[in-house]
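Dear colleague,

Thank you for sharing your sequence with our group. We've completed the structure prediction you requested, and as agreed, I am returning the results in plain text so they can be pasted directly into your records. Please verify that the sequence below matches your submission; if there's any discrepancy, let me know and we will rerun it promptly.
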Amino acid sequence: MANERMIPGHGDWQPYGLQHLQRYQFALERVRDRRVLDLACGVGYGSFVLSQTATSCLGIDLSPAAISYAEARYRRANLTYRIGDAAAPVAAAGSIDAVVSFETIEHLADPRALVAHAHRVLSPRGLLIVSAPNALQFSRAAEPRPNEFHLSEPSYEEIVDWLSPWFSIREEWEQAPVLPTLSHGAYAEWRRDLVDRRLKIRRFSAAPLRWLESGERALRRALGKELPVSPAEETEATVLLNLSEIIPLLPERRAACSQYLFVCQRLDHPAV
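Please find the predicted structure tokens below.
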């Protein structure tokens, strides 16, 4: 799981980071004025986003290195971090109003343990906001794309089966890449024009930054100091990969969608 960790500005962040932030933006208003638990918070950027509207936010991750990174970089008065397991007790029963768990449940050998744990820590009518990749588009696709870190990729029926004994599913969404739609006629042309405009704007706005960076590098070389080089612009591939939308999940899309995103409400009397 550590090899899949997203760190802003590093590794796979450039092509996929905005998709991760988009999920946290989706949750932002739904957790307003709530005590929030971000399960498997990674390096903390998502917990930092949630803390903007939450009364308080607790980020939990199994990795001590990730928690140290989060504590050093993503700080707010109402935000705390703790080392812990997403499927084990990390907060007192009823002490949380909203649990957020994005791209976590598929990493667990027993996904029901995460759901049961979320139910235990939530207050009455508390929310669970959860996302997971659709196995029928990845590990169980016609041309399988297995992931060694994913132990429990679900189909629609499976994730509903995990959730429904403990929660009422109130909203069903999918996070859909926009890229496949580029093959459709007039829409494809409009989208290509949009991407072209974005790239031109970013390249134009990046020019002064490149000049400043060049001057700073020259000064640091003269002083014998090093400066990490950061790209000042995004490639077309990066812009395209980041184009995704969170849209309602229609029944006919349950097998075809890429990512499930559900908003669930705690059942006072679980069916277990």
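Summary note from our side: The helical segments are 13-28, 45-50, 64-73, 111-121, 156-163, 185-223, 236-241.

Kind regards,
the structure core
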